[in-house]
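The following block was generated as part of the benchmark described in Methods. Ligand: S-adenosyl-L-homocysteine.
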Amino acid sequence: MTATAPITQDVLTLPRKPPQDGKMNLVGLTRPALQEALVAAGTPERQGKMRMNQVWQWIYQKGVRDFDLMTNLAKPYRTLLAENFVVEVPEIVSKQVSDDGTRKYLVRIAGGHEVETVYIPEEDRGTLCVSSQVGCTLSCSFCHTGTQKLVRNLTPGEIVGQILLARDDLGEWPEPGRNPKDETRLLSNIVLMGMGEPLYNFEAVRDAMKIAMDPEGISLSRRRITLSTSGVVPEIARTAEEIGCMLAISFHATTDEVRDRLVPINKKWNIAELLDSLRAYPKLSNSERITFEYVMLQGVNDSDEDARRLIKLIEGIPAKINLIPFNEWPGAPYKRSSNNRIRAFADIIYKAGYASPIRTPRGEDIMAACGQLKSASERARNARRAEKPAAE
Ligand code: SAH
Ligand code: SF4
């Protein structure tokens, strides 16, 4: 990693560009924006709210994309909608299924860019790992995504679209006439832990998560959504105030010297500033603990001393420490700590009174595990330079 790697945001979400046929995509619009769009297209003002509710339910509760199937709308109105709008989700370019059932989707968004979305089935839940940017402006030295330059931010429609397309693939839309609440939820949790730094695309992530939480639709509880940030301190309080979801912090080191190397945003907001922002976090409580993610890198951040320093640092913050065995990728400059080392580290933290689960790597055989995501085009380009290990 170069010391000059960018540590601040340098692009904004691309404005929603009307597609070539001029039809606006309704996916990703907030409720007021959807209502406004329907009225602008000719829906009588006094019917605006009712029509918005109807269309909303078709899209997010029933998974319908074709206006013709929106049977509680009069035929001429369906035609009006079809003339002005589309209900579009990003396209799945390829799907890989791991031996452990993890599914990785390569998803194409407008402009031909690609992101990855990962579905992780577990016994009592199914978690969708959603991307918020193509690439990342940050360049954490252990993260595969970080070796890919930021191409652009995703729009709210592209973020919520990942949820819709996963539900399509899982066959999770309710049968016509059945109450959606009776359905088993295959997709029960969302983690914003895919490609990108969600707090550098705050508004789009917020609007998409509001849609995911809306009770008349995907209807996921805010406690089932976790946003992971590398530590964009000025945006942390807003996460509680404007989204209200759970928070995870990519902590990964116990001294500024090491964290500067692993998570370069630390040079902008160091450990003390990050912890201050967490102590002031509006939603902090024992029932809503902050998750500290800690990647276990052999000989870098995994000593007993690190474990003890970590406990000291987070004192007073209701927290859970999620230990992530490092997932290797081609050319990665680190090694995974041994299982014994990880267990010893976990034990020290556990004895200090914190939950310290060790995350089981999922989907490693298809490069779907944490930090391995990178779009295929980038991967292919890098494979061509494969002779140069850890070149970036
Ligand atoms: N940009 C956000 C969210 C995406 S990364 C963030 O950094 O928090 C999701 C988690 O995976 C982060 O904790 C990240 O530090 C971790 N991660 C990245 N690369 C990894 C790797 N190679 N092995 C294990 N975890 C990794
Ligand atoms: Fe970006 Fe997160 Fe990877 Fe760091 S760990 S480069 S912030 S995606």
